[in-house]
Design goal:
The complex is a heterodimer of chains A (166) and B (453).
Chain A: H1 2-17, H2 26-33, H3 52-60, E1 62-64, H4 74-89, E2 95-100, H5 107-127, E3 135-141, H6 152-158, E4 160-165
Parallel strand pairs in A: 2-3
Antiparallel strand pairs in A: 1-4, 2-4
Helix pairs in contact in A: 1-4, 2-3, 4-5
Chain B: H1 12-15, E1 17-19, E2 49-52, H2 61-80, E3 84-86, H3 105-110, E4 115-123, E5 129-137, E6 142-143, E7 148-152, H4 157-173, E8 182-189, E9 196-203, E10 210-211, E11 219-224, E12 230-235, E13 242-247, E14 253-255, E15 263-268, E16 274-281, E17 284-291, E18 297-299, E19 307-312, E20 318-323, E21 330-335, E22 342-343, E23 352-358, E24 365-370, E25 377-382, E26 390-395, E27 397-403, E28 409-415, E29 422-428, E30 435-437, E31 442-448
Parallel strand pairs in B: 2-3, 2-4
Antiparallel strand pairs in B: 1-7, 4-5, 5-6, 5-7, 8-9, 8-31, 9-10, 11-12, 12-13, 13-14, 15-16, 16-17, 17-18, 19-20, 20-21, 21-22, 23-24, 24-25, 25-26, 27-28, 28-29, 29-30
Helix pairs in contact in B: 2-4
The chains are: A alpha+beta (166), B mainly beta (453).
């Protein structure tokens, strides 16, 4: 299971490398900076596979969107497949999907757009077999940016869907 | 007759006992005659009218202080309007020691004053004060009108001063005023990535500032009811963004409606009996109208797009809103039953239109425009049929216009780039007289109250 997840992450990294306009998701950064668990068979390091930390750092808890868009891109699909797989493996876990926007829109429209983004992520997870009753959504619009530099590089990081597992 | 009344909660008719001060001397104002002293505020840039506002003399130390403070508040109101240039009292040649003193017009003309406000504050045996004023046309040498007198508790002096400023504004411009109003807004503090947001309320001049919520929950987009006693707003209480009602005086809050998902973007109807809002279901936002008496809701739009920021016309017979059903967010108008949905904005170069707000006069819709060629945000107005678009303010991020009750001034908020300061500004419908509205800290989502009833 772990290996399959890693394969997914590597695939995601490769796809991202081909697509410079998208920000690097945390999963890619984690995969690049830490050795794969298989390389340390005696004393495996890193978070336990069923932990929230594992979900956030290895599976990847974040996907990104284009300006004023909510479609799940190919790179996002890869991350969401990993999320669905993990959620299906740990059925006691529930997830809240946050929809976020950049600052280049009005407050209320962005609440609607963030809601759309969160629900697009939810619909994709449901299509991969995650029970809808385990998934909540919430829109934060542009109220919770990750990054406050007023430039596209930063805005692209803020246009995100964040899966928070409980 | 006079009770000990709390200022904020009172209808004007209970707060004040108003009476005309009457005409004075030979230069008495002829009823019905149009004052010669007049500003036409529909013209573009107006040369501010020089006006003299001496301290209102009192009959006791306390009333003398009130008279001084009231004159200062009136002076500041009229100055901020951009239509008046109050003269420095240091240069005044005549002491207006009572309401019986006849102005020496040559002295006031010598200072360049075109208008003069004469006032008095009389302490009365009941503990009440009587605050009276009389406006003069200095060049014509006559009263502009009879003026008025207000009986009130001393602590209400500030509100009486705003009411007098409104009276003077009306006497000289022919338009109703907007100084006896309040502003509710979102006070912001802390890092942009984890911003603390609180409901706050203040008089339109920044006085009597107080916070209505403690910041425990993210709150956004407050709007006044037509009585200015209630606010509808969005709160993330228990991590569910929903529309709430908030009674300013009692502090009582209640959730509005029973929507399964997020509800947001509320506004009261002009009669105060309804709230129109957006509710989201499975990622799709549509517009609903809530009847506050029956608590029933009615769906007005049914479209797989983001339909949001609904707003009634002042007559309550139409609703404008924003929708991205055409590919980008644009403005639409419909009947209040949801029929007759019609697009009115057609942004060139992918420009989006948002946050429509109908003018209290009914003649214009204010909006936020963004994402066009230059990437700037704009505050603008257009007629309800979409014609006659005019842009009034621009910036890296300007958003969320709200009208003064006379439909002549707009307030909005502007954010500096890179998480910089967020502040409230006002601008005249002419596009002139842009002013920062001073707040203790960062501020967004202003909502201007009606004239306090």
């Amino acid at each position: 299971m772990k290996l399959r997840t890693l394969t997914t992450v590597v695939a995601a990294v490769l796809m991202l490398a081909a697509c410079n306009s998208k920000p690097k998701p945390q999963a890619a950064a984690a995969a690049a900076s830490s050795p794969p668990p298989a390389a340390a068979p005696v004393a495996p390091r890193g978070p336990a596979p069923d932990s929230i930390e594992y979900f956030n750092t290895v599976v990847g808890n974040m996907v990104h969107f284009d300006f004023d868009k909510y479609d799940v891109t190919a790179a996002d699909q890869s991350i969401l497949r990993g999320q669905a797989q993990w959620l299906n493996q740990y059925p006691a876990r529930t997830v809240t999907i946050e929809g976020h926007c950049d600052e280049r829109g009005t407050r209320e429209y962005n609440l609607g757009l963030g809601d759309r983004r969160a629900n697009a992520v939810k619909a994709y997870l449901v299509s991969l077999g995650v029970n809808a009753s385990r998934i909540k959504t919430i829109s934060y619009g542009k109220e919770r940016p990750l990054c406050v530099v007023s430039a596209e590089d930063c805005w692209s990081k803020n246009r995100r869907g964040v899966s928070t597992v409980q | 007759m006079f009770e000990d009344l709390k200022l904020s909660s009172l209808p004007r008719r209970r707060l004040l006992s108003a009476a005309a001060t009457g005409a004075l001397g030979a230069a008495a104002y002829a009823a019905g005659a149009r004052a010669e002293v007049r500003i036409d505020i529909t013209r573009g840039r107006v040369e501010p009218m020089p006006i003299a506002i001496p301290s209102f003399p009192g009959t006791t130390p306390e009333s003398t202080q009130v008279g001084k403070d009231a004159a200062a508040v009136i002076t500041a109101d009229l100055e901020r309007s951009g239509l008046f240039r109050p003269l420095d009292p240091k240069g005044f040649l005549q002491e207006m020691s009572s309401l019986d003193v006849q102005p020496r017009f040559t002295d006031w003309r010598a200072l360049g004053a075109q208008a003069l406000v004469q006032g008095v504050v009389e302490a009365q045996g009941t503990g009440q004060m009587r605050i009276a004023f009389r406006p003069w046309d200095v060049f014509g040498g006559q009263q502009i009108n009879n003026g008025k007198a207000y009986g009130t508790q001393p602590e209400n002096w500030r509100r009486v001063a705003h009411i007098i400023a409104d009276e003077i504004y009306t006497a000289i411009t022919g338009e109703s005023g907007y100084f006896d109003t309040r502003v509710v807004y979102i006070a912001e503090s802390g890092p942009q990535t984890n911003r603390l947001k609180r409901l706050a309320i203040m008089d339109q001049d920044g006085a009597n500032h107080r916070y209505l919520t403690d910041g425990a929950n993210l709150v956004l987009t407050p709007r006044f009811s037509p009585t200015a006693q209630e606010i509808t707003y969005l709160s993330f209480f228990r991590n569910v963004p929903r529309v709430y009602l908030f009674n300013i005086d009692s502090g009582r809050q209640e959730v509005l409606g029973d929507f399964p998902g997020m509800s947001y973007a509320p506004r009261f109807s002009p009669d105060g009996n309804k709230v129109v809002l957006s509710a989201a279901l499975n990622g799709n936002s549509d517009i609903y109208e809530m009847d506050l008496r029956t608590r029933s809701s009615r769906r007005l739009t049914d479209n797989p797009s983001i339909d949001t920021t609904p707003c009634y016309s002042p007559r309550g017979d139409q609703i404008c809103f924003a929708s991205d059903r055409g590919g980008t967010q644009q403005l639409y108008v419909m009947n209040t039953d949801g029929t007759g949905q019609q697009r009115i904005s057609f942004g060139q170069n992918r420009a989006r239109y948002a946050t429509p707000v109908w003018s209290p006069r009914g003649d214009l819709i204010a909006f936020t425009r963004y994402a066009g060629n230059d990437g700037n945000f704009y505050i603008g107005v257009m007629k309800p049929d979409g014609s006659g678009e005019r842009l009034l303010a621009q910036g890296f991020s300007v958003e969320g216009p709200t009208w003064a009750p006379n439909g002549r001034v707009l307030m909005y908020f502007a954010q500096s780039p890179n998480g910089g300061r967020v502040r409230l500004y006002s601008i005249d419908l002419t596009g002139y007289n842009q002013r920062e509205i001073l707040t203790p800290g960062d501020a967004s989502d202003p909502a201007w109250s009606p004239l306090i009833p």
